[in-house]
Specification:
Low-confidence stretches of chain B: none
Helix content of chain B: under 10%
Largest sheet of chain A: 6 strands, mixed
Structural class of chain A: mainly beta
Number of strands of chain B: 11
Low-confidence stretches of chain A: none
Number of helices of chain A: 0
Number of strands of chain A: 11
Radius of gyration of chain A: 13 Å
Order of helices and strands of chain B: EEEEEEEEEEE
Mean pLDDT of chain B: 93
Distance between the termini of chain A: 37 Å
Structural class of chain B: mainly beta
Strand content of chain A: over 45%
Shape of chain A: globular
Distance between the termini of chain B: 36 Å
Largest sheet of chain B: 7 strands, mixed
Oligomer: heterodimer
Helix content of chain A: under 10%
C-alpha cells in the first residue's frame, strides 16, 4: 500500500448501532497514526494519536486500535448518536515528518 | 486560548495576482503544515515545516511557496494563482516529536477561488 486508504467511504447507521471503520497505511517509515473527526463547516479535531503496535485508545464511546506490522487501524463507535455524524479521517505521520491523510469515512447517524 | 489562526477566511482573486494566506499559532509548536482539501481527494499536504527556517515539500507543492522565519508564523504564498488552485486550505500545527503526542491543531480554513 503506497497511500493511506479508508473504508467504507460512507456509512449510514441507526441511532444506537455500533459501527467501525478501517484505515490502511504503508507499514514502512511509520511514526504515528492519527484519527481526526471533521464536522461540516468546522476544522478537523484530533481524536487519537497512536504510535506503538497493539496500541488501543479510548475516549468515551469511541475507541481505536493499531497494527503497525500489517498496516491498519480500526475506529469503533459504540451506540452511535446523531452528534457522531461527521467525517472521520486517519493520517499517517512518517518517520521523515510527512503527513498523509486518508480520504475519510463519512458517517451519518439516523435518529 | 490555544489556537491556529488563518487569514483570510474567504478570498476571491484573479489568475496571476500574487496572494498570501497567513497562519499563526500560539502554542510554541515546532511543526506547521499547509493542506488543501478538494472533493473526493481528502486533505493533501502542500508544504510542511519542522522548525524555523526548515521547510519541505508535501505531496502537492507545485505553484506554492512557504517561509518560516518565526516559529509562530507559516504563510502560504501563491505567486501566480491559477484556477486549479481553487480549493479549501487548512493550516495546522503540532509538536514535532514528543513520544507520539503529535496531533495537529487546525486553523479555521481559507476558501480560495481563483477566476
Amino acid at each position: 500500500i503506497l497511500n493511506v486508504e479508508q473504508s467504507p467511504q460512507s456509512l449510514h447507521v441507526q441511532e444506537g448501532d455500533s459501527t467501525n471503520f478501517t484505515c490502511s497505511f504503508p507499514s514502512s517509515n511509520f511514526y504515528a497514526l492519527h484519527w481526526y473527526r471533521w464536522e461540516t463547516a468546522k476544522s478537523p479535531e484530533a481524536l487519537f494519536v497512536m504510535t506503538l503496535n497493539g496500541d488501543e485508545k479510548k475516549k468515551g464511546r469511541i475507541s481505536a486500535t493499531l497494527n503497525t506490522k500489517e498496516g491498519y487501524s480500526y475506529l469503533y463507535i459504540k451506540g452511535s448518536q446523531p452528534e457522531d455524524s461527521a467525517t472521520y479521517l486517519c493520517a499517517q505521520k512518517t518517520s521523515y515528518d510527512k503527513v498523509i491523510f486518508g480520504p475519510g469515512t463519512s458517517l451519518s447517524v439516523i435518529p | 486560548e490555544a489556537q491556529v489562526t488563518q487569514n483570510p477566511r474567504y478570498l476571491i482573486t484573479v489568475t496571476g495576482k500574487k496572494l498570501t494566506v497567513t497562519c499563526s499559532q500560539n502554542m510554541n509548536h515546532e511543526y506547521m503544515s499547509w493542506y488543501r482539501q478538494d472533493p473526493g481527494l481528502g486533505l493533501r499536504q502542500i508544504y510542511y515545516s519542522m522548525n524555523v527556517e526548515v521547510t519541505d515539500k508535501g505531496d502537492v507543492p507545485e505553484g506554492y511557496k512557504v517561509s518560516r522565519k518565526e516559529k509562530r508564523n507559516f504563510p502560504l504564498i501563491l505567486e501566480s494563482p491559477s484556477p486549479n488552485q481553487t480549493s479549501l486550505y487548512f493550516c495546522a500545527s503540532s509538536l514535532r516529536r514528543t513520544g507520539g503526542n503529535t496531533e495537529a491543531f487546525f486553523g479555521q480554513g481559507t476558501r480560495l477561488t481563483v477566476v
